[in-house]
Write a structure and sequence with these properties.
Length: 225
């Protein structure tokens, strides 16, 4: 699954007209984390580090895609699955679903970038509680923490996916060039020092100023209500 995820991320990096992305599981389970048989097969530190670096790279590339991404969490997002949710811009949960960082029960801490991203999402105090307590985060708690944007109505796979698409569409409506540029300036602001982020924002602004979407908007002369 790790290899397949990397391949899909590479495909998405080459999707030049894309605006949004929904990541979901199958069979009403988002992702149950590492296969224990696989973990037992790589007991030495160096092999574990190689896996860690591989997944950090994949999830960082996922996070930096110029697409607005949503993790649709049905059922359980456990361990590495919980880390995967943090690589998305937003998280939507279905009734009865949960996110849980169970790493401490395996004698580990997150290694795929999940801890660093979690701190940025919920703050250091809440992140420490979730990691050190291996706490179960249900939809209500996730909303309180700011870990989830909304609890969907449907617990079923097809219904919740339609709800997620409708939720995402409010942020992906409009020209792809503008939506992608918005994601890029936010990524720069999050990851770069201020001066570098300002330069990047200026450069991205220059790609849309005078572009087709900008010129069409001027012709329409939209009124902002």
């Amino acid at each position: 699954m790790m290899l397949e995820l990397q391949e899909k991320v590479a495909e998405l990096e080459n999707w030049k007209d894309g605006k949004g992305l929904i990541i979901c599981g199958a069979g009403n389970t988002f992702c149950s984390g590492s296969d224990l048989n696989t973990v037992k097969a790589i007991p030495n530190s160096q092999d574990g580090m190689n896996m860690c670096m591989f997944m950090q790279n994949t999830l960082t590339r996922l996070m930096r895609l110029p697409l607005i991404s949503v993790a649709l969490i049905q059922g359980k997002a456990i361990g590495g699955g919980a880390e995967l949710t943090t690589a998305c811009d937003f998280r939507l949960m279905t009734p009865g679903s949960e996110i849980r960082f169970v790493h401490k029960h395996m004698g580990l801490v997150p290694g795929w970038g999940g801890a660093a991203r979690l701190v940025r999402i919920v703050g250091s105090r809440a992140a420490l509680r979730l990691l050190s307590g291996a706490l179960k985060v249900d939809p209500e708690r996730a909303l309180r923490l700011g870990l989830s944007e909304e609890t969907l109505l449907s617990p079923e796979e097809s219904g919740s996916l339609e709800e997620a698409r409708a939720w995402l569409s409010q942020y992906t409506e409009g020209p792809a060039s503008v939506i992608r540029a918005a994601k890029q300036v936010v990524t720069a602001g999050r990851e770069l020092p201020l001066e570098d982020a300002l330069r990047t924002e200026k450069d991205i602004f220059g790609t849309v100023w005078g572009g087709p979407a900008n010129l069409q908007a001027l012709v329409r002369r939209p009124k902002h209500k």
